[in-house]
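User: I'm writing a short report section on ligand binding and want a predicted complex to refer to. Could you take this sequence and zinc ion and write out the structure as tokens? A short remark afterwards would be nice.
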Amino acid sequence: MRDQKQGRRPVQPDTSRLLLGRFLSSALEVGGTVLHIEPDRDGAKLRIRSGLELRQFHTLTREEYGEIWQNLADRVGNEELTPFYDGSFPFGINGRHCRIRVSLVPTPFGESVTLKVNAREDKVLGLERLGLSPTSLVQLRNLLARNRGLLVVAAPPGSGGTTTWVSIMESLCDGTRKVVSIEDPIEVSLEGVQQIQIKSVRDCPDRSVTFERALRSVLLQDPDVLGISLLKDLSSGHAALSGALAGSLTVTRVHAYSATLALGRLLQLGIESTLLSDCLAAVLAQSLVRKNCPACSQPDPNRNLEGLKGKSSRGKGCEQCHGTGFSGLVAVFELLINSTPIAKLIEDRRSGREIEGQARIEGMTPRASVVRTMVESGEVPLTEYLRIL
Ligand SMILES: [Zn+2]
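Assistant: Sure. The structure tokens for the complex follow:
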């Protein structure tokens, strides 16, 4: 009672023994990164994404679905579980500490739940280990050495965008700069970064932490680097732009498939093209592609592409790759650096195709070309090249 009065939650039970905890542990054991709980007439389907594969994992009865829901409510607070809840809770297994990002969407049979596993050791890779080409790595380092401008990390959901964003943020904590981030929610705790959690307090707007309010205070704290975790609406978009306009190096992230689509997304959020063209330093876009299993990869005589140097290869499936033919993922990047001609195209709201054409003239290697080279070296199958086109 005393805790409730003070707005604190009682100590949480050890969820690892509860049904939700058991499924999360099993998902982690098989390398799962996202657990999907999709309610239907009879209960719910449980599916796991590991790498790029989504597979059926378990079928829940109505009672089990109810039990998982209760476990979740105990974890994040019953009053918090609104229809479009987006938040997270800590979870530990075998000495491994993760944050589980929870997202809810209402369906006729109950809330559809996704639980995304964020383990710090998986997320903070360091710039060298992200998989950038040597040229892009040098270009990125030069961009990060600047004191101002907007750097946007673009990736579709589940394609490693968080990993890249947190690795960039951590690399900026070199002891010489004040690094602040505004996040919704904080997915990975970062040493050296003052992380601010967006928080909406129902019935008490004065205690809510919004992007606007957080930004006002942050700018008074003299930041050199400002991070905005993900742009998903006008208020987060304005915060990122204001940070860049105020003179901080601002690093943000957006869900978009390519560098030029990320620019389109920013304009769609309501950011003015003139301000964007002035502030933008660069867009770093990334995708994940599946690598051939080295144990069973062989030339693929049935699939080839005109002009491809050498034959493509693919894994035929073996014990080592559980019959999938794939082994692991690799991130591929394209780095679109703003220039005077590109800024003019953005300001005039010209098409992504035109902007990409100009970026290629200025030396940008698109992701498709990067993957094509990987196909030629036998590292990835042709199907992955066709998939990301
Ligand atoms: Zn294999």
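A remark for your report: The chain has two domains: 2-117, 124-388. Residues 199 and 209 are 5 Å apart (CA to CA).
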